[in-house]
Specification:
33% of the residues lie in helices and 30% in strands. The chain has helices at 40-53, 70-88, 138-151, 165-184; strands at 9-15, 19-26, 33-36, 56-63, 97-104, 107-114, 120-124, 131-132, 135-136, 154-161. It starts with 8 loop residues before the first strand and ends in a 17-residue tail after the last helix.
């Protein structure tokens, strides 16, 4: 754990007519991951966030899978974003910015992010196939749109190389996890001040 007096943990339960999602995140964890969304490929990607970000994640979701994966995928992104926003609190002492370049075989993806309080997604993936297994690859963007809007981060995703859809997406989630890990770390020189010249985020 970092030099925090209290753990940065948040739990959110979000229920709609389409989904029921529980998310708990510990920003100062060790990568423990308990995830069941009913979407196997999304579960695999959420494991990347926990493992490479060293966040403890517990995500349990039920959705209208008989229609398709869209609602569950999006609502997991929304709820994870809300939990992340709550866990960060007033953002005192954090590094705030994160940047990581992740290779996965032939794929190379860069992620840069800022916990700015201003939601923005710049999405530069070119995924060559419509599906990876049963997962619709259009849902990658929808997941990040939802997460960005509800965590209030600025997120830039750039694909520098890659021809295999699975590799491109997994490199993205690994880079995202590592960039987030950098950004939420406590800067020992920052102390308990907010990392902004404005004095607030």
């Amino acid at each position: 754990m970092t030099n925090h007096q209290t753990p940065r943990i948040a739990s959110v339960h979000r229920t709609t007519g389409e989904t029921d999602v529980h998310v708990t995140i510990n920003l100062d964890g060790t990568g423990i991951c308990k995830v069941s969304t009913g979407i196997p490929f999304l579960d695999h990607m959420l494991h990347q966030i926990a493992s490479h970000g060293l966040f403890d994640l517990d995500i349990q979701a039920k959705g209208d899978w008989e229609i398709d994966d869209h609602h569950t995928n999006e609502d997991v992104g929304i709820t994870l974003g809300q939990a992340l926003f709550q866990a960060l609190g007033n953002k005192k002492g954090i590094v705030r910015f994160g940047n990581f370049l992740a290779p996965l075989d032939e794929a190379l993806v860069q992620v840069a992010l800022d916990f700015s309080g201003r939601p923005h997604l710049s999405y530069g993936l070119e995924i060559p196939t419509q599906r990876v297994g049963t997962y619709d690859t259009q849902l990658v963007r929808e997941f990040f749109v939802a997460l960005v809007n509800h965590s209030q981060m600025t997120l830039h995703i750039r694909q520098l190389d890659g021809i295999n859809s699975h590799h491109i997406i997994e490199a993205t989630f690994k880079a995202f996890a590592r960039a987030m890990r950098i950004a939420v770390e406590i800067d020992p020189r920052r102390g308990s001040t907010i990392p902004s010249s404005k004095g607030m985020l």
